[in-house]
Design goal:
It holds the Pfam family NOG1_N. It comes from Methanocaldococcus lauensis. InterPro entries: G_OBG (IPR031167), GTP-bd (IPR006073), NOG1_N (IPR041623), NOG1_Rossman_fold_dom (IPR010674), P-loop_NTPase (IPR027417), Small_GTP-bd (IPR005225). GO terms for molecular function: GTP binding. The protein contains twelve helices and seven strands. It is an alpha/beta fold and 351 residues long. It has two domains: 146 residues, Up-down Bundle (Four Helix Bundle (Hemerythrin (Met), subunit A)); 179 residues, P-loop containing nucleotide triphosphate hydrolases (Rossmann fold, 3-Layer(aba) Sandwich). Strands 2-3-4-1-5-6-7 form a seven-stranded mixed sheet, with helices on both faces. Helix 10 links the parallel strand 6 and strand 7. Helix 2 runs antiparallel to helix 4 and helix 4 packs across helix 6. The radius of gyration is 29 Å and the shape is rod-shaped. It starts with 16 loop residues before the first helix and ends with a helix. The structure holds guanosine-5'-triphosphate. The site of guanosine-5'-triphosphate (GTP) has 17 residues, from helix 7.
């Protein structure tokens, strides 16, 4: 299985103008100290020291800014799910604009560094060389202050984006259903013990992920477990973004209603999710071990058929009943059809 990373994990810490300036000046001073040890005529030495200071400051600042650009993945090349996340969490346009400011500043500082280094080489006195260096430092400070808002914006964006969970580019099942219907029990049963819990910015409960061969199964507590009218805009967008992650939704119904929600309520949530998602939805009627009345299950099945659910499973996640059939279905549906075919299939379903 390929090991992929959240594409924002590689973004470096973003230094603010004062921090970056202090770092550059420290390095400049260090280089200057080395130069001072050299045996040279006084004017030549003064020029030499100041020129190296300027060049060092310019390259520390310009390289640092350029590194941010280089280590930030271009949004348009990201998987669609992460593109959506950038839009929801930070705003794609603002993000691009801010990185543009980094580029502008980096190039300008490098150019100024060259210009001032040349001027210093022609300085007629040590004082003049020192004055030129000070002028250069002042200009770099002012450039950094000018892009301070963009630096702060990218720093906040990085904090939000680097904590997104790492989804693998594998066929993905997203589990939905009210709390306590058995979602995490099923996830554990299907994927073994190694369920990862990741932070997810839209829910305090995190996101649970597991792998069944090359199928990724994701449980999103807090997202697909209550009616949509209770959602704010950001949550709705986060839910919609799951469209780009999911190839299939597995909706779980607790037939025993011990979860605290009636069958009617659960079916209503299913209808909402079905309307929102462009991918096929299958339903697992769970906790059948707790329901003695056969008629009740039949009744649920009838209603699911009316809603137009394409496949229904009767399971007990806890007792391990019906899970083999579910697994086989996933393998057949997700591994023997590639992702694009699945998406096409989903679009056909919705047209
Ligand atoms: N008898 C029985 N109990 C089950 C079954 N599936 C889950 N449970 C129990 O139902 C309770 C809730 O299960 P969870 O897996 O935590 O439910 P969940 O949907 O993940 O809940 P949230 O994390 O709140 O969203 C637990 O006590 C499980 O042991 C089942 O098939 N049969």
């Amino acid at each position: 299985m390929s090991k992929e990373e959240n594409p924002f994990k590689k973004m470096p810490t973003i230094l603010m103008p004062d921090e970056l300036m202090a770092k550059a000046l420290r390095r400049g001073e260090k280089v200057a100290n080395e130069m001072r040890k050299k045996e040279l005529p006084w004017l030549l030495k003064a020029r030499y020291v100041e020129e190296h200071k300027v060049r060092t400051i310019a390259s520390v600042v310009a390289d640092n800014l350029q590194k941010v650009i280089d280590k930030t993945p271009p949004v348009r090349k990201l998987p669609k799910f992460y593109q959506e996340m950038v839009e929801v969490l930070v705003g794609v346009d603002e993000f691009k604009k801010s990185l543009g400011a980094f580029k502008w500043a980096s190039e300008l500082v490098r150019k100024l560094g060259n210009e001032y280094a040349k001027k210093i080489r022609k300085a007629r006195t040590p004082q003049q060389a020192g004055k030129l260096r000070k002028e250069f430092v002042g200009r770099v400070k002012s450039i950094l202050n000018q892009i301070h808002p963009e630096m702060a914006f990218v720093a906040v964006a990085r904090e939000k984006l680097k904590n997104l969970p790492t989804f693998k580019n594998l066929p993905t099942v997203v589990i939905a259903g009210y709390p306590n219907v058995g979602k995490s029990t099923l996830l554990k049963k299907l994927t073994g013990a190694d369920v990862e819990i990741n932070n997810y910015p839209f829910t305090t409960k995190g996101i649970n992920m597991g792998y069944m061969e090359d199928i990724q199964i994701v449980d999103t507590p807090g997202l697909l477990d209550r009616p949509l009218y209770e959602r704010n805009d950001i949550e709705l967008q986060a839910i919609l973004a799951l469209n780009y992650l999911a190839n299939l939704i597995l909706f779980i119904i607790d037939a025993s209603e011990f979860c605290g929600y009636t069958i009617e309520e659960q079916l209503n949530l299913l209808k909402e999710i079905k309307e929102l998602f462009k991918v096929p939805i299958v339903v697992a009627i769970n906790k059948i071990d707790l329901v003695e009345d056969e008629g009740k299950i039949k009744n649920i099945e009838e209603k699911l058929k009316e809603i137009g659910v394409e496949k229904i499973f009767k399971i007990s996640a806890d007792k391990g009943i019906g899970l083999e059939e579910l697994k086989e279905y996933f393998f057949k549906k997700l591994l023997f059809t590639n992702r694009e075919n699945i998406k096409e299939l989903a679009n056909e379903n919705n047209n």
